[in-house]
Design goal:
Order of helices and strands: EEHHEEEEHH
Strand order of the largest sheet: 1-2-3-4-5-6
Number of helices: 4
Helix content: 25-40%
Radius of gyration: 15 Å
Number of strands: 6
Shape: globular
Length: 132
């Protein structure tokens, strides 16, 4: 799905893939229905204008896009993480609603770094947040 896009693949698990869009055209693709079958409303990927992309990039912001292979009950099909300066990261769902990064960070940590003895054993944060 991402082979023809100007992006950098950062990580991939059985549950999701994380990419960094490297140009506005890639951000438009990530925003679109063509990426995951569901559109998003992120301003950096507005197909009408590169202005928001250019402004955020000039400020030194970095955006990480996470595409979930199966629709996640909390995060949906895709989200975007904004890293800007010394501010705490935040993530946005497809409807552009902003959320605290801690919920996502715990989920990602569990999926990428914590080893589980078997599939029926949930990590502590899974039990605490209800994320499965």
């Amino acid at each position: 799905m991402f082979t023809n896009q100007n992006c950098r693949i950062i990580a991939q698990t059985k549950d999701f893939i994380i990419v960094i869009p490297l140009d506005w055209h890639c951000a438009v693709f990530l925003n679109s229905f063509n990426c995951g079958g569901e559109g998003a409303k992120w301003c950096i990927g507005s197909k009408d204008s590169e202005t928001n992309w250019d402004e955020y990039m000039a400020q030194g912001n970095i955006f990480y896009f996470i595409y979930f292979f199966k629709r996640h009950p909390i995060f949906g099909k895709k989200i975007i993480i904004e890293m800007s300066g010394n501010c705490k990261p935040q993530f946005y769902t497809q409807k552009d609603s902003r959320h605290d990064f801690d919920l996502l960070a715990n989920y990602l940590y569990d999926r990428m770094f914590r080893k589980k003895k078997n599939d029926s054993t949930l990590a502590l944060s899974d039990r605490a947040t209800g994320i499965q």
